[in-house]
């Protein structure tokens, strides 16, 4: 996605003086303040803002500036369409510097209703972090966590989804069901799914496409095993996974998690993390073009408060996918704070 300076003028069917412009402008201002999109400038019935717009609008050259476009920003939580007059298109090459970083917590198969107290503690300690804050609880807790986090800027996600929208798939969950329960993200292709359930790149790609269709942002996980790293195959392995699992369009996130570092307390060296993330950025650019500059690449694998700041200082590390440390508000909050300060 591209960052654009725009002027919101109300939905096309209402015109610039439409009855919905007040609520839309107020929502733009409130959401921008909550997630740190930047200053809003009120000009009569218009609202100037920096927002993120869909891929169908991001290819706007200088000659298109000042023209009228229609857009919708799911990133800031709006579902209304409005006139979007392009004031200034921020080049893709600078988007990495302005993107909102993401701290994503994956609870895996952990947590009962009593665990929701950790969510309340997290929100009390970090009501408005600079980075985006996401928790992916078990499906059994998603709706309850959504209720517990109502009115906050905490985002929620699922841990997997089926590639089909509905059907005779006992025990599975669709992307639309996750969306209905309050999710805006879904983790896909985690190494534990790849290993425990034999999931391959083609299936993960199908799930990612289903997630995008349902309005979810897929977090696509890739990573090498210890044996593959020892054989010098890391870049070949993650390059193949990236190519086979990544949709060519839509808002998405990539998470690099070396399998041998997940839950082991071991982490790659800073040089190894830097090498992989630089490789992934270049590979994404080759795969999908300049839009790759706006895709967040997370690091995951034994991220904890003691090493978070060092990891977040690495170029092209745009956040973290956190496992065990996300279960406790104090630990995850410290990681959120480190990312906000990065």
Write the layout of secondary structure elements.
Layout: E1 2-8, H1 21-35, E2 41-43, E3 46-53, H2 55-58, E4 68-71, E5 82-89, H3 95-98, E6 102-106, H4 116-125, E7 132-136, H5 139-148, E8 154-158, H6 175-181, E9 185-188, H7 191-197, H8 201-214, E10 217-222, H9 226-230, H10 234-245, E11 253-256, H11 270-288, E12 296-300, H12 308-312, E13 319-322, H13 329-341
Parallel strand pairs: 6-7, 6-13, 7-8, 8-9, 9-10, 10-11, 11-12, 12-13
Antiparallel strand pairs: 1-3, 1-5, 2-3, 4-5
Helix pairs in contact: 4-13, 8-10, 10-11
In percent, how helical is the residue content? 25-40%
Characterize the main sheet: 8 strands, parallel, barrel
Shape from CA axes? globular
Total separate domains: 2
CATH class of the largest domain: Alpha Beta
Tell me what the structure shows.
With 342 residues, this protein is of the alpha/beta class. The chain folds into two domains: 2-90, no CATH class; 97-341, TIM Barrel (Alpha-Beta Barrel), CATH 3.20.20. 37% of the residues lie in helices and 20% in strands. It has helices at residues 21-35, 55-58, 95-98, 116-125, 139-148, 175-181, 191-197, 201-214, 226-230, 234-245, 270-288, 308-312, 329-341, and strands at residues 2-8, 41-43, 46-53, 68-71, 82-89, 102-106, 132-136, 154-158, 185-188, 217-222, 253-256, 296-300, 319-322. Helix 4 (116-125) links the parallel strand 6 and strand 7 (132-136). Mean pLDDT is 80; it is low at 1-21 and 31-95.
What distinguishing features does this structure have?
disordered N terminus; 20% strand; alpha/beta; eight-stranded parallel beta barrel; 37% helix; 2 domains; 342 residues; 13 helices; five-stranded antiparallel sheet
């Amino acid at each position: 996605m591209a960052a654009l300076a725009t002027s919101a003028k109300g939905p096309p069917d209402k015109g610039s003086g439409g009855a919905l412009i007040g609520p839309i402008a107020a929502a733009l201002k409130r959401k921008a303040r909550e997630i740190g999109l930047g200053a809003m400038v009120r000009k009569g019935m218009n609202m100037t803002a920096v927002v993120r717009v869909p891929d169908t609008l991001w290819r706007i050259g200088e000659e298109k500036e000042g023209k009228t476009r229609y857009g919708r920003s799911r990133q800031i939580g709006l579902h209304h369409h409005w006139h979007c007059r392009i004031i200034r298109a921020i080049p893709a090459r600078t988007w990495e510097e302005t993107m909102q970083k993401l701290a994503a917590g994956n609870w895996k198969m952990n947590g009962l209703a009593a665990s929701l107290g950790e969510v309340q503690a997290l929100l009390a300690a970090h009501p408005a972090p600079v980075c985006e804050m996401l928790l992916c609880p078990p499906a059994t807790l998603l709706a309850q966590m959504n209720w517990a986090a109502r009115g906050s800027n905490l985002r929620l996600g699922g841990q997997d989804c089926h590639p089909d929208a509905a059907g005779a798939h006992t025990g599975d969950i669709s992307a639309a069901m996750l969306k209905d329960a309050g999710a805006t993200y879904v983790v896909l292709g985690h190494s534990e799914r790849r290993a425990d359930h034999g999931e391959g790149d083609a299936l993960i790609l199908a799930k990612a496409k289903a997630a995008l269709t349902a309005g979810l942002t897929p977090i696509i996980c890739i990573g090498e095993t210890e044996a593959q790293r020892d054989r010098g195959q890391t870049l070949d392995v993650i390059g193949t996974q990236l190519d086979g699992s990544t949709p060519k369009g839509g808002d998405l996130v990539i998470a690099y998690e070396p399998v041998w570092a997940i839950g082991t307390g071991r982490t790659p060296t800073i040089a190894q993390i830097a090498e992989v993330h630089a490789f992934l950025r270049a590979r994404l650019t080759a795969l999908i073009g300049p839009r790759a500059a706006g895709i967040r690449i997370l690091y995951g694998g034994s991220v904890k408060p003691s090493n978070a700041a060092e990891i977040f200082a690495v170029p092209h590390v745009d956040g973290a996918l956190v496992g065990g440390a996300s279960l406790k508000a104090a630990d995850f909050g410290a990681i959120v704070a480190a990312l906000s300060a990065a």
